[in-house]
Amino acid sequence: MPEAEHRVEITGPYGDRYDEILTPQAIDLVAALHAELAPRRQEALAARRSRQAQLQSGAMLDFLPGTRDIREDPGWRVAEPAPGLVDRRVEITGPTDRKMTINALNSGANVWLADFEDANTPLWDNMITGQLNLKDALDRTIDFTSEEGKDYALQPDDQLATIVVRPRGWHLDEKHILIDGQRASGSLTDFALYLATSGQKQLEKGKGPYFYLAKIESHLEARLWNDAFNIAQDALGIPRGTIRGTVLIETIPAAFEMEEILYELKDHSAGLNAGRWDYLFSVIKKFRTRGREFVLPERNSVTMTAPFMRAYTELLVKTCHKRGAHAMGGMAAFIPSRRDTEVNEVALAKVNEDKTREANDGFDGSWVAHPDLVPVCKEVFDSFLKDRPNQIERQRPEVAVTAEDLLAVSKTPGQITEAGLRNNISVALQYLANWLSGIGAVAIFNLMEDAATAEISRSQIWQWIHNDISLDDGPAVTRDMVEQLIDEELTKIREQTADAFDAERYGQAVALFTEVALADRFADFLTVPAYERMP
User: Fold this and answer.
1) Are 461 and 421 in contact (CB under 8 A)?
2) How far apart are CA 535 and CA 183, in angstroms?
3) What is the pTM for the complete model shown?
């Protein structure tokens, strides 16, 4: 893996201690992965575009006939759960800033999803200091003092959550690292920097380098990750099978290839997760021009009890347990309040209901976004699991999900109202204003929102406009209407935030939102044009 074979240029500025992450070994690994996998990554992205064109021309998703033998072969299983990933009843998610790193590891959760993706903004400094925070946590040299003078420090190692890193999706570049003149893959950069600087530290803790794999749309994309794992393990002298990856099933094409995805990652697989919010975004995106049959009600009225969402989650549990893999539940976005008793009671009740349904369905654990929700999720899964670490043995033979079940979007109850349209606009503007300033996880209207929120909000508006959808309590949704509502919602935000309102930042948010919600051409991911607006 000699560096001379590949010309690597780091165009981002060097900050304090950056050299501890951008080591020669780490950069060589990024270059080696790029050399082997960059063309295949581009082929995978081209395949996504081709499938999108087919869907817009009237094609439909279905289980793949060419991989039927994999689905019908009862003999294969994924690897046994790795150390630190046997019991995953509560997983907490969040970005890798210093305070969150300490709070998440101390939260009492079994796993912390250390997020370089949707709960993070890919500022160059965020990406490198996030890696430093993980390294410092593993070295036990991390601490933090708030502006109020409160000190944060790690609990003993045996009380800390297992770190599982979520790199960026295949579609995102890292523009501050050029390899032979080409931008590096954001996915491979995040993966390689963590593995090279912290992977051995995880092994010395008795665990290992574990990852959540985002935005996958096919088993061939899972194969690409599996090959990245093997290349990296061989380069660093780590035994194959040491790395483990949990795949987020957060795109509707991937829902038709769950068994194949597990099969491709077999010895590196740590199961699947029901990435519910991005899944809704994917449904809207993939079928955005297919008329009312694929138009969802407003975002907040789509629940996990909708028929197509029930089909997706039940198939995920059955598929995982059939192959000996963990089935992980989705995010509870509600935020408890330490100041408002009523808000707090509602949040805790909703989380309890959500996690009870998941545990009853057979999930082995689930996600929360706030440390105060860890006890709620833990109590629910404790009551189901008792002294068992998981319920993989529960096979769900009664579940029989068809392609039609997964595509039954039109059976979703709910409305499309002016209030729902306004909520989409307001939440998206508030989130994007924060995102552009470097914050990727934002509390809005008592919910913890990440990039998936803004994606659903803007894609729903695009779909309603382009499919001539009328509000249930008003006229048709048009570009002119949305532009007027943007102005009105922006005024409300300005009044509510008063002196804290940043006119320049919100001006940028409005421009970005208008580009991705109202333009004739649909942007596949809003984070792509947003990233180009960053230094």
Assistant:
1) yes
2) 15
3) 0.97
Contact 172, 122 (CB under 8 A): yes
* First and final C-alpha spacing in the chain: 31
| Residue 152 φ then ψ, to 5° | -125, 135
- Rounded CA separation 347/344 (Å): 5
Q: 447-504, pLDDT tens digit by residue?
A: 889 999 999 999 999 999 999 999 999 999 999 999 999 999 999 999 998 888 999 9
Secondary structure class of 425 (helix, strand, coil): helix
Question: Which residue, 340, 348, 8, is CA-closest to 174?
Answer: 8
Residues involved in catalysis? 166, 450
pLDDT digits (tens, 9 = 90+) for 342-398: 888 988 999 999 999 999 999 999 999 999 999 999 999 999 999 999 999 999 999
For 30, 113, 301, 366, 442, the CA distances from 348, given in Å and listed in that order, are 43, 21, 19, 15, 19
Name the token pair of 163: 């770190």
Task: Please state which of the ranges 46-55, 219-228, 446-455, 524-533 shows the lowest mean pLDDT.
Answer: 446-455
The model's confidence at residue 315, banded by pLDDT at 50, 70 and 90, is: very high
Instruction: Give the count of alpha carbons within 13 A of 42, CB side only.
Output: 8
Residues 154, 138: Cα–Cα separation, whole Å: 10
Q: What angle separates helix 24-56 from helix 219-236, to the nearest 10 degrees?
A: 170
In this structure, what DSSP letter does residue 20 have? G
- Amino acid 211: pLDDT: 98
The amino acid sitting at 526 is: L
Q: Distance between CA 93 and CA 12 in Å, rounded?
A: 27
CA pair distance 501, 385, nearest whole angstrom: 47
Residue 217 backbone phi and psi in degrees, to 5? -115, -5
